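>> received
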Amino acid sequence: MFDLGTALDRAVKTWSVVHTPFLSPDRLVQALSTLEQRVDVQGLAWGGYPQAERGRLAIAPRELNLEEQRPPPCLGANHRQLSF
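>> returned
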């Protein structure tokens, strides 16, 4: 199961972009709301079709530019999702 706190800590500690699994609309809004309250990390919602209900979240330290680091559009069948 996805844990936002673990993802936030991993992004800060590893100084990298962390990608979430697909989140429901409610969970995505909740995660973005939490990120807005933090000064050390930022988030970018992405993924799925434009009409898709679920989406992914890229989380990174504020100093990294998420717009320049577009997440991978598709993960192959051999990709192993990180568990949080």
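>> Residues 76-84 have pLDDT under 50 and may be disordered.
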